[in-house]
Amino acid sequence: MTKHIVEAGKPATKLKSEALQVLLERGLVHQCTDLEALDARLADGQVTAYAGFDATASSLHVGHLMPLMTMRWLQKLGHKPILLLGGGTSQVGDPSFRNEARPLLGDEQIAANITGIRHSVERLIDFRGEDGARIVNNAEWLTEFRFLEFLREFGSQFTVNRMMTFDSVKSRLEAQMPLTVLEFCYMMLQAVDFLELSRRHDCALQVGGSDQWGNIINGVELGRKGDGKQLFGLTVPLITTASGTKMGKTAAGAVWLHPEHLSPFGFWQFWRNTADADVPRFLRLFTELPMSEVLRLSSLEGAELNEAKKILATQVTAIVHGAEEARHAREQGDKLFAGEGDLAEPTHHMDLSHLADGLGLLQLLVHVGFAQTTSEAWRLVEAGGVRLNSQVIEDPRRKISVGDLKVDDQLSLAVGKRRKALLAFR
Questions:
Q1: 85 and 159 within one domain
Q2: Where is the RNA-binding S4 domain (predicted)?
């Protein structure tokens, strides 16, 4: 399978389709199975594309914004997105670059997670009208297969030799971590998803993270072998911050898109606290500002760069939570960064179970985005700039327990005068 690896703004050839031009310019393309053929297909008319998300939590997080922004741009430029929710595959687990298997979920939890994920993406993608995006649950077909029927139809289309070459498998084996048959079969199930979407909805393109490349290739090849169709795979880069951490992940959890998990202001504040070095790239990837404005803002330095961070935060918050919530978040942020007032509503929500054995203060500082790493958080505490419930904390090893909670099971956390969070535990 031919693989093209491309850089933002540097297509290998002159492109015909506006969609692929924009995705490349924005830095949303890492790998593509056949760049020229996909370009011709996108230029020829509407293409249906899908991105898949397993229902392992009740919200998506900012790490999912890369494929979501890709689907958003495709829709804006005349193509049709499908968001595939893994009601079926969530019962199995995905081994991709994980050191241990995902916990298996029950049907009720998966259904609840799917409902939450739907809410996470309602503003990002337009589902209205006949040409609107579609949400599909792969349980529609995966739960209908009988085991022997599945093996007879698809078993001969995959080789163990090929699967062993995929990074998602090799990383587990090289680390001498167990890899169950259930997880191994996940790759087959994802390939069948692509085939079924091709047959049911004329879907021709799968979008995913670069860690999903092997799984995507399986689907492309299954479409060719099974139906003689040319299907396409496109991966987005896996984004790490300037500190080297994976985008959207923290030591204590994820930066959620669902407002019940993270308030619009908490979300805005996460982006406002972006490291200076990440601002130009994030403006390109996560906003819809014209590239001329992206370049202007990216050239700012010193105190002016803070204004670029506010614009970044407001633009991303408007895409995820709506323009009104973004405006309120900006106003609240301006007051707090000016050292005026306190938070009236929680910015973050966490489960009480996090406090069972004591939650590390350093982990909490990273979780709310006040530090990129625990080492940075340690330095903030040592400098005397961290306050828990308005009290300066001097011990970086401080653990937070249920006894620290105040009214309504909340606690406040602040770094200096401008960074404040109000956490609610439930």
A1: yes
A2: 361-404
Domain that holds residue 421: 245-255+345-426
For residues 57 and 186, membership in a common domain is answered with yes
- Pair (81, 152) in one structural domain: yes
Q: What is the structure's pLDDT at 248?
A: 61
Quote the percentage of the chain above a pLDDT of 90: 44
- Contact, 365 vs 393, CB < 8 A? no
Determine the Cα–Cα distance for residues 24 and 10; give it in Å rounded to an integer. 7
Cα–Cα distance, 217 to 3 (Å, whole number):
10
Question: Which range is least confidently modeled, 249-253, 339-343, 367-371?
Answer: 249-253
Q: Are residues 378 and 336 in the same domain?
A: no
Q: Which two tokens stand for residue 400?
A: 């937070």
The answer on pLDDT for 171 being more than 90 is no
Which amino acid, 207?
A: V
Is 190 known as a binding-site position?
Answer: yes
CATH of the domain at 42: 3.40.50.620
* Core vs surface per residue 60-96: b (16+ CB within 10 A) or e: bbbbbbbbbbbbbbbbebebbbbbbbbbbbbbbbbbb
Per residue, the 3-state secondary structure of the chain, as one string, reads CCCEECECCECCCCCCCHHHHHHHHHCCCCEECCHHHHHHHHHHCCCEEEEEEECCCCCCEHHHHHHHHHHHHHHHCCCEEEEEEECCHHHCCCCCCCCCCCCCCCHHHHHHHHHHHHHHHCCCCCCCCCCCCEEEECHHHHCCCCHHHHHHHHHHHCCHHHHCCCHHHHHHHHCCCCCCHHHHHHHHHHHHHHHHHHHHHCEEEEEEEHHHHHHHHHHHHHHHHHHCCCCEEEEECCCECCCCCECCEECCEECECCCCCECHHHHHHHHHCCCHHHHHHHHHHHCCCCHHHHHHHHCCCCCHHHHHHHHHHHHHHHHHHCHHHHHHHHHHHHHHHCCCCCCCCCCEEECHHHHCCCEEHHHHHHHCCCCCCHHHHHHHHHCCCEEECCEECCCCCCEECHHHCCHHHEEEEEECCCEEEEEEEC
Tell whether 249 is in a known binding site.
yes
CB–CB of 62/53 below 8 Å? no
Tell me how far CA of residue 140 lies from CA of 180, 218, 267, 381, in angstroms: 24, 20, 34, 51
Q: Which two tokens stand for residue 379?
A: 């330095």
Query: CA nearest 218: which of 188, 184, 180?
Result: 188
pLDDT band with cut points at 50, 70 and 90 for residue 229: very high
